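Work Package 4 report. The design task specified in the project plan requires that, given a folded chain encoded as structure tokens, an amino acid be chosen for each position. We show below one input record used in the internal validation round.
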């Protein structure tokens, strides 16, 4: 499988949040603890999404990670208020205004970080541009597009990736661009398009609308870009940024250490070096505020990364995405746990 992108943006943004002197250290974490409720934004885009929305919404994954964060910080997954955000722009503005404490599933960018004063934690999902084809189309990969009709939304990042990949591979296809998503999907179902090119989340979301014909279409495994989706927090509270990042990392760490949801309590006193980051208090945070059981509660709420993906994005979900880049690095993916320390 091919992956082509850098994951450094969220790492750099988080490093800046943790290294820079916060304007009001602990303000968000203190507010969440005092209120006893986590206000968590989740991207749930309307049907008429715009060209600026480069990935599909993942509300189930977002809600689960909100619940895990509430469990880690407040002791119960039920102590969360989900606030729907129709786009990243709305979500960033809600963070900026203090309406929400965190936003789930944002695509990190330096422009957003500067414009809205937000920082990004580590990726919880890796999206990427892909191809969806009819199962009997005979198309197995990009090179098979030669002479075939490829449909896409005009003036989008996916369109630019498609053009660049075609030029790199010297593959000549018949482009058919659309301004409107509904018309494109009608052409796909009617088989006027041999292939549909977009982010994997967009393709999977579109396929759920095919109803009785869902099984007729497959999303090919190759990816032509990598787009990390991460939690986002407002700048100014390094402690809160650390908590959100730690919870985002916990499912991958648990899977790497062989711990699933049913055995999450083992994280409290494990001797496994891979699980040490989950077995104690968080650096610089008063144990009276976030105690050493934070990871056991988070993983006990949503499971490890494999369980989380299967339920919210994979075979157990409507999206039925292959795990691909979201598998552990030992399984051919790009998800890597923290090093033992």
């Amino acid at each position: 499988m091919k992956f082509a992108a850098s994951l450094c943006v969220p790492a750099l943004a988080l490093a800046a949040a943790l290294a820079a002197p916060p304007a009001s250290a602990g303000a968000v974490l203190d507010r969440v603890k005092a209120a006893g409720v986590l206000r968590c934004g989740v991207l749930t885009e309307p049907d008429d999404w715009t060209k600026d929305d480069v990935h599909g919404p993942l509300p189930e994954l977002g809600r689960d990670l909100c619940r895990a964060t509430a469990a880690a910080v407040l002791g119960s997954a039920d102590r969360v208020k989900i606030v729907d955000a129709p786009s990243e722009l709305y979500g960033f503005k809600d963070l900026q205004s203090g309406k929400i404490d965190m936003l789930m599933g944002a695509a990190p960018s330096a422009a957003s970080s500067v414009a809205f004063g937000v920082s990004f934690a580590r990726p919880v999902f890796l999206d990427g541009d892909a191809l969806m084809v009819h199962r009997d189309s005979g198309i197995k990969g990009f090179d098979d597009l030669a002479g075939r009709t490829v449909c896409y939304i005009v003036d989008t990042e996916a369109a630019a990736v498609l053009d660049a990949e075609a030029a790199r591979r010297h593959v000549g296809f018949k482009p058919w661009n659309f301004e409107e998503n509904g018309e494109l999907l009608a052409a796909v179902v009617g088989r006027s398009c041999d292939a549909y090119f977009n982010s994997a989340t967009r393709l999977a979301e579109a396929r759920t609308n095919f109803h009785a014909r869902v099984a007729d279409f497959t999303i090919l495994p190759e990816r032509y870009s990598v787009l990390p989706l991460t939690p986002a927090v407002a700048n100014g509270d390094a402690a809160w940024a650390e908590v959100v990042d730690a919870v985002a990392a916990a499912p991958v760490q648990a899977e790497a250490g062989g711990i699933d949801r049913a055995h999450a309590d083992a994280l409290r006193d494990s001797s496994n070096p891979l699980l040490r980051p989950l077995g104690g208090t968080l650096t610089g945070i008063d144990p009276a505020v976030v105690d050493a059981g934070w990871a056991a509660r988070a993983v006990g709420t949503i499971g490890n990364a494999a369980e989380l993906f299967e339920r919210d994005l994979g075979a157990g979900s409507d999206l039925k995405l292959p795990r691909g880049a979201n598998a552990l690095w030992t399984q051919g993916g790009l998800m890597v746990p923290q090093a033992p320390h």
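The first strand starts at residue 38 and ends at 43. Validation will be extended to a larger panel in the next phase.
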